[in-house]
Write a structure and sequence with these properties.
13% of the residues lie in helices and 46% in strands. It has one helix at 2-25, and strands at 32-38, 44-48, 51-65, 71-85, 90-103, 119-121, 130-131, 136-144, 155-168.
């Protein structure tokens, strides 16, 4: 029992010293701020086959260390995608999407090597996997944005590619003869 008490006392003392040292070593805090780039226009109508909708609230955000200007978190494009199944007779299973950033010469602007391509999957939360005729759904978009596209007049177009599976949507009625009580 005395041994256990000694071990616990030693552990508490080591933890207190580590906490005290950590508090003494703290220097000036680093201030990180969001640098927001406006996308003009910030909303666009979209039409892809039987899917129509709108991309809204587009902006590019980069996290910068104040003072030094070092990039803490690379640029990301965020916004909302509203889709509507405009078909009268087809259900749509929405699978995913991809954004491409196109320069003034019509060439794609690549994201940096350690970053991922600007793809996204439609989630069940906030976005119905299946859209019947006339139904709408909203999906948040948050993808990596190429640093080269932040230069003035470098980015000309954003291309949205949607992946969806249409299938026939039919409602049919069946009547059958019945009687109650008579055999």
């Amino acid at each position: 029992m005395w041994r256990r008490l000694g071990v616990m006392t030693t552990a508490a003392a080591v933890a207190a010293m580590a906490l005290g040292c950590a508090q003494q070593q703290s220097g000036p805090s680093v201030v990180i701020e969001d640098k927001v780039y406006a996308v003009t226009p910030d909303s666009m109508a979209v039409k892809a086959g039987i899917m129509t909708g709108q991309v809204t609230e587009m902006k590019v955000t980069e996290r910068i260390e104040k003072g030094s200007g070092n990039v803490v978190s690379p640029a990301k494009l965020s916004g909302k995608l509203l889709l509507k199944n405009s078909s009268a007779d087809q259900t749509v299973r929405v699978i995913g999407g991809k954004l491409q950033f196109i320069d003034a010469q019509g060439q794609p602007i690549k994201v940096e090597e350690k970053r991922v391509e600007a793809t996204f999957k439609f989630s069940g939360y906030g976005m119905a996997e299946r859209l019947d005729p006339g139904q709408e759904a909203t999906q948040a978009v948050d993808v990596d944005f190429p640093a080269a596209a932040l230069q003035a007049k470098k980015l000309k177009t954003i291309r949205l590619e949607l992946v969806y599976l249409p299938s026939s949507y039919r409602e049919e009625t069946v009547n059958f003869a019945v009687s109650i009580g008579d055999k």
